């Protein structure tokens, strides 16, 4: 199949996706000093970009021009600023050792295996030696797991967008270029149409240096 079509599908997706409000960035705030340079890799319409802009010099990168346009609008309405750049994660247009932190929430799961490998390499490249990656992906126990499988645990959905579901070990392996990886699986129960279902996320951070004990 055309492995570019799932990237192009995001522009159509953001023709009707609406702002869901800002998302918490407390994990970043605990680790990264105010004023640091932060990349929101796959920023979408700005749900993390907006709260990050309140404390950091932040850059948002996304493949969808529609998403970036909405992100700029939300920032302007809140009298906030962040640079918004059209880019894939597999070829980030930034110099090596540029960012103090990279936030990549809900993005890696929408890439094919080869793209995930390139994206992890690119994120590692643009991080400073002391930098931290904050990451969140779907886990294999998630209620949405399944469908038309195009790669192992990777499914094609309506509209052309793909969804990959990770095991914790798989994500650790993907982040093998990092020195320290700290992850946790988060399972929550949700009721839909009277039935109980599981939402499964794997979330955490990866560092290029070992943490120094305090």
From TrEMBL:
The keyword Transferase applies. One of its GO terms (biological process) is methylation. It comes from the Archaea. Gene3D superfamilies: Vaccinia Virus protein VP39. InterPro entries: Methyltransf_25, SAM-dependent_MTases_sf. It holds the Pfam family Methyltransf_25. Residues 38-131 form the Methyltransferase domain. Keywords: Methyltransferase, S-adenosyl-L-methionine, Transferase. This is Peptidoglycan-binding protein LysM. It comes from Methanolobus chelungpuianus.
């Amino acid at each position: 199949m055309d492995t570019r079509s799932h990237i192009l599908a995001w522009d159509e997706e953001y023709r009707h996706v609406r702002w869901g409000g800002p998302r918490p960035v407390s994990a970043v705030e605990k680790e990264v000093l105010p004023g640091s340079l932060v990349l929101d890799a796959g920023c979408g319409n700005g749900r993390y970009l907006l709260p990050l802009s309140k404390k950091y010099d932040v850059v948002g990168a996304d493949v969808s021009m529609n998403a970036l346009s909405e992100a700029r609008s939300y920032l302007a309405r809140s009298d906030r600023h962040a640079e918004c750049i059209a880019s894939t994660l597999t070829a980030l247009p930034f110099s090596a050792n540029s960012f103090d932190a990279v936030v990549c929430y809900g993005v890696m799961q929408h890439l094919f295996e080869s793209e995930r490998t390139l994206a992890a390499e690119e994120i590692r490249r643009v991080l400073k030696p002391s930098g931290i990656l904050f990451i969140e992906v779907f886990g294999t126990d998630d209620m949405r797991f399944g469908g038309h499988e195009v790669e192992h645990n990777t499914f094609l959905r309506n509209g052309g967008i793909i969804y990959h579901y990770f095991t914790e070990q798989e994500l650790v392996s993907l982040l093998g270029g990092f020195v320290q990886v700290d992850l946790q699986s988060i399972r929550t129960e949700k009721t839909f149409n009277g039935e109980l279902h599981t939402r499964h996320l794997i979330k955490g951070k990866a560092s290029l240096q070992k943490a120094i004990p305090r």
